[in-house]
Each structure stands twice: as structure tokens, then as C-alpha cells.
Design goal:
By secondary structure, the protein is α+β, with helices and mostly antiparallel strands. It is built from eleven helices and twelve strands. The strands form three sheets. A five-stranded antiparallel sheet has the order 8-9-12-11-10. GO terms for molecular function: flavin adenine dinucleotide binding.
């Protein structure tokens, strides 16, 4: 009997832990909302950590998203003209540090292909490299509609081994692009590489009065750059100020005017703002550059 008693006490802890899990899933979730509650309860019961909770919620968010929800807008696309030589495109490559670029003919509605920067390596030591043309080395572009489900797109990215797709609207015009990294960031959060510079990435000038701004830009830095007077005791970042002003989690494309600046949500998910377009001088939103 004495041997049985300690054995039972030792077994009670794992049994209790298993009971907690079983209790959570005993009533099978009937919809996504209930499943999200199960995940939140698991985090509250310390069965999973906050990072895991965030990723699980991110997976559920992705299942509800369309390409239009996460794409990089056409105004922020760095493109190459098909008539440019390798020498001509080098400044663009150095400035943007992307691994892939859409190749266009005249404007962004005419996508001819995709340039992978690594494909230029074989021309690096050729004496006639500057005379090589993009049309000879670019790869086919993948075109998808704005309504494409993001989870289905991720599956295609993996199966067909491409990392970028051009997004078109119902009229066939290019509205943006999406990469596999854009999808993964919805699940695991912002992904930075060795080319990302926090200072340069916070505020990027797109045109004379149009700026791409990270929602995480420190408020004091934002005020200094734009000469604005947002209260630095109300929030640490410009995203916090904008979110408070909206009074709800805004969707991509929503706008609001604050302190003489027009803010347009460029990138967001159900949990946080990611990127803002800031228009100085109250210029109309429709005047985005190609």
C-alpha cells in the first residue's frame, strides 16, 4: 500500500495537466471565433507561450486574407524598365536591396517579367555585360487576382517554388505585388535581413510630399521629421497615435487627417498597424506616383 500511494501522487500532476487540455478540446470549436478562444485560453493556462499564441492567431488570420490585404501597393513597387541596360539598373538595385524586381514596359501596368538579382552574377565578369538586356535574363511573372486567398497562394509558392506574384485588379491593371515573405510576416511578425536599416526603414520618401512610414517609428523621430506636434506622452510610436485616432483597428486603405497630415493605412493585419502612407500638405490620396 505504501508503494501505491506515492505512485498515485506522482501520477496526479500529469493527469491534471492532460485533463486541462482535454477539457479545452472536449467541446469541439464550431467556428474560427471559438478556435481563437481556445488558443487564448491555452495561453492563459500557460500551455503555450505568447509567441506561439501570436503565430497561431497569425495562421488563422492568413486563412481569412486575400492578396489585396497584404500586397505591397504599386506606388511602393521598385521596378526596372525592360529597355534599361545592366549598367542603368545598378543604382536601383543598390538603393533598394531587393532580391527580385518586376520588369515593366513603359509603365507598371505592363509587366514583362521578374528579374532575380542572383541571375546577374554570371554576367559580373563578362566584358560585354553592360550590353546585356533584361529581356534575355528575366523570368516569367506570376499574375494573380486581388481576390486570391493568401493560404492558397502560400501553398502555390511552396509547390511551384516562386517567391513573388504580381497582383492585378478586376480590370487587369497592376495594383501591387506580394512575396512569400509578406505572407510569413503575417504569421511570425516582421522579418528583417542584413540589408534592413532601422533608421532608413522608418521613414522613406516616395515623392515630393508622399512618405512611406513604419507604424513603429518612434513618435519623437516622426515629430522631428515632419514638424508635427503629437503628444509623446500619449504614445511611443506614430502607429499608436493613428490607432488611437481611428478608435478601431483600421483596414488597408482607410485614411485619417491629423495635425495637417493625411495618413493612409498601407499595411495592417487584425492585430496591429504595420505601414502608413503619410501625405504632407493635404495632397489628395489619388495622386500616388507610379
Amino acid at each position: 500500500m505504501s508503494d501505491d500511494t506515492p505512485h498515485s501522487s506522482r501520477g496526479s500532476a500529469p493527469k491534471s495537466w492532460l485533463d486541462r487540455i482535454a477539457g479545452m478540446f472536449n467541446a469541439e470549436p464550431q467556428d474560427v471565433s471559438e478556435l481563437e478562444n481556445v488558443i487564448s485560453e491555452a495561453a492563459n493556462n500557460l500551455l503555450i507561450d505568447e509567441d506561439t499564441k501570436g503565430m497561431l492567431h497569425g495562421v488563422l488570420d492568413v486563412s481569412k486574407m486575400r492578396a489585396r490585404d497584404i500586397m505591397i501597393p504599386r506606388s511602393q513597387m521598385a521596378t526596372l524598365d525592360i529597355e534599361q541596360s545592366i549598367t542603368d539598373i545598378l543604382p536601383i538595385l543598390l538603393e533598394n536591396n531587393h532580391s527580385r524586381y518586376p520588369v515593366v514596359n513603359e509603365d507598371k501596368d505592363h509587366i514583362e517579367g521578374i528579374l532575380l538579382v542572383k541571375d546577374l552574377l554570371k554576367f559580373a565578369f563578362l566584358p560585354d555585360a553592360p550590353q546585356c538586356h533584361l529581356r534575355d535574363i528575366m523570368r516569367p511573372a506570376v499574375i494573380i487576382p486581388e481576390s486570391k486567398r493568401v493560404d492558397a497562394l502560400l501553398k502555390e509558392f511552396r509547390q511551384k517554388r516562386y517567391h513573388m506574384a504580381m497582383v492585378v485588379d478586376e480590370y487587369g491593371g497592376v495594383s501591387g505585388l506580394v512575396t512569400i515573405e509578406d505572407i510569413l510576416e503575417q504569421i511570425v511578425g516582421e522579418i528583417e535581413d542584413e540589408h534592413d536599416d532601422a533608421e532608413d526603414a522608418d521613414i522613406k520618401k516616395m515623392a515630393s510630399n508622399i512618405f512611406q512610414v513604419s507604424a513603429l517609428t518612434p513618435l519623437d523621430e516622426f515629430n522631428t521629421h515632419f514638424g508635427s506636434h503629437f503628444n509623446e506622452e500619449e504614445a511611443d510610436t506614430i502607429g499608436g497615435i493613428v490607432l488611437h485616432a481611428f478608435g478601431h483597428m483600421p483596414e488597408r486603405g482607410e485614411t485619417i487627417e491629423l495635425d495637417g497630415l493625411l495618413f493612409k493605412v498601407s499595411k495592417a493585419n487584425s492585430r496591429r498597424l504595420l505601414q502608413l502612407q503619410v501625405i504632407n500638405g493635404k495632397a489628395p490620396v489619388v495622386s500616388e506616383p507610379d
